[in-house]
């Protein structure tokens, strides 16, 4: 790669990142469906025509944000669930994982919470697809756990989806606490208690 080509590639990546960051910033209190392309390019400091060198439209920009927020969770959640220890310790680890995600990417998580049932079909489908993949990875880890011995696949899948929904709900609770100016202690206690209840039911599930 020539120096000139390398420079152009660096600029391309910077512009793409600027557009993604500008969109997240503009969506602090707005939905993707209400955000215009020109607003994003103005906030990013680039010409509107530059947008189309990176994304086909606002829908595609939204799906990229979904992938950024969720794509790396699969392996992490599977590793946490496969960790030795009782259900309480694993539940605490899951809550901590969600807390770290919200702390490190609050704008991404806010976007996911708002757009999961939002007005942009492509983004709704992207979120649903990523959560389905996360549930599949979770089901693999749960199926290997002795507590799930004798369960049929449908029951393991039901449990995995319940846990994924709980993670999403917990992330939303952390965001809401921050908006109210509260710490996360109450939300953390609630999330841990809910997981204990889920795992208590799991231990007595007929399988």
Automatic annotation (TrEMBL):
Family matches, as InterPro entries: Homeodomain-like_sf (IPR009057), HTH_TetR (IPR001647), HTH_transcr_repressor_FabR (IPR050692)
Residue ranges of the annotated DNA-binding region, renumbered to this chain: 36-55
Gene3D superfamilies registered for this protein in UniProt: Homeodomain-like, Tetracycline Repressor, domain 2
Domain HTH tetR-type: 13-73
Membrane-crossing residue ranges in chain numbering: none
GO molecular function: DNA binding
Keywords assigned by UniProt, alphabetized: DNA-binding
PANTHER family named among the record's database cross-references: HTH-TYPE TRANSCRIPTIONAL REPRESSOR FABR
The protein's name in its UniProt record: TetR family transcriptional regulator
Organism: Streptomyces venezuelae
């Amino acid at each position: 790669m020539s120096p000139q080509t390398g420079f152009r590639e660096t600029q391309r990546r910077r512009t793409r990142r600027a557009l993604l960051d500008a969109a997240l910033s503009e969506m602090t209190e707005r939905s993707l469906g209400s955000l215009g392309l020109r607003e994003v390019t103005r906030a990013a400091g680039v010409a509107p025509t530059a947008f189309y060198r990176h994304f086909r439209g606002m829908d595609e920009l939204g799906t990229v944000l979904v992938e950024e927020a969720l794509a790396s969770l699969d392996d992490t959640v599977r590793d946490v669930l496969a960790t030795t220890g009782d259900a309480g310790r694993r539940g605490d680890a899951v809550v901590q994982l969600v807390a770290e995600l919200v702390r490190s990417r609050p704008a991404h998580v806010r976007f996911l919470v708002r757009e999961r049932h939002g007005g942009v079909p492509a983004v709704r489908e992207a979120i649903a697809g990523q959560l389905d993949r996360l549930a599949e990875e979770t089901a693999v880890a749960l199926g290997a756990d002795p507590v799930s011995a004798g369960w049929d696949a449908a029951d393991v899948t039901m449990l995995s989806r319940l846990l994924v929904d709980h993670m999403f709900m917990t992330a939303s609770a952390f965001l809401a606490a921050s908006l109210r100016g509260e710490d996360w202690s109450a939300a953390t206690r609630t999330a841990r208690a809910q997981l204990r209840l889920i795992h208590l039911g799991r231990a007595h599930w007929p399988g």
